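Lab notebook, design round three. We kept the backbone fixed and only want residue identities now. Task for the bench partner: fill in a sequence for the structure below.
Input structure tokens:
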């Protein structure tokens, strides 16, 4: 595919995505149904992701603390810098950007495969025939539910990552607990916490909306559903990284 054709295809997809989002963000016809579906999606996409977030964050926090200690052995660097660096790495990048890249694989593929299966089995066509706005009915609860619960996942990630570093200090002699805890508290900047929450909301929207778009326009059978799930993860990951650069420039300048 030539560069011109690739550019044209990208513009076409972006335009269809914008039209799709216009259908998604229509006013729901039945607020009670929308509310119940949103709660269901919060449980499925958000609450069910908590164990994965805790396990990954615990080990990543421990690894960051170990790596920082092994690579900051200079006498010119204070010993509490391990806790400080671990905290800032978690707040600035891991708890939002890296976490959302991981969730793009779990949540994004789940959404794309679910909606794609509904498309190939003609369930979405049946909703359209009945006069239901299928994009609004199926996608809006997923987008709203995931965005709503994303700050909770970020909070779990921050807490368990710092706990992972604390456990390293507690059960090894790499760094003392007192120095690690002091490093976590030293030179704390509150805005870093809000910065992580703000970024995660944008990333949650990207994951849920792009995955829904990829699944909604599936054509074919089961093989195409699998391709749509892969495209959803890849596209979401690229957009998250691109958006990460933009938001970092805007929020930390």
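Proposed sequence:
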């Amino acid at each position: 595919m030539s560069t011109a054709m690739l550019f044209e295809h990208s513009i076409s997809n972006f335009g269809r995505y914008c039209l799709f989002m216009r259908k998604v963000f229509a006013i729901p016809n039945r607020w009670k149904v929308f509310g119940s579906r949103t709660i269901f999606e919060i449980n499925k996409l958000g609450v069910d992701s908590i164990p994965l977030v805790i396990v990954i964050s615990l080990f990543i926090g421990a690894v960051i603390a170990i790596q920082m200690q092994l690579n900051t052995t200079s006498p010119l660097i204070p010993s509490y810098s391990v806790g400080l660096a671990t905290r800032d790495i978690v707040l600035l990048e891991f708890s939002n950007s890296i976490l959302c890249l991981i969730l793009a694989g779990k949540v994004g593929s789940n959404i794309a495969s679910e909606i794609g299966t509904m498309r190939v089995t003609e369930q979405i066509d049946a909703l359209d025939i009945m006069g239901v706005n299928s994009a609004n009915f199926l996608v809006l609860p997923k987008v709203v539910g995931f965005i709503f619960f994303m700050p909770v996942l970020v909070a779990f990630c921050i807490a368990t990552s710092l706990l992972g570093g604390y456990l390293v200090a507690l059960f090894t002699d790499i760094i003392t607990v007192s120095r690690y805890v002091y490093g976590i508290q030293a030179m704390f900047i509150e805005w870093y916490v809000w910065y992580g929450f703000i970024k995660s909301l944008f990333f949650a929207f990207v994951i849920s909306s792009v995955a829904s778009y990829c699944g909604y326009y599936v054509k074919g059978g089961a093989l195409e559903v699998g391709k749509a799930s892969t495209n959803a993860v890849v596209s979401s990951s690229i957009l998250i990284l691109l958006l990460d650069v933009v938001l970092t420039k805007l929020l930390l300048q």
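Keep this in mind before ordering anything: The two ends are 38 Å apart (CA to CA).
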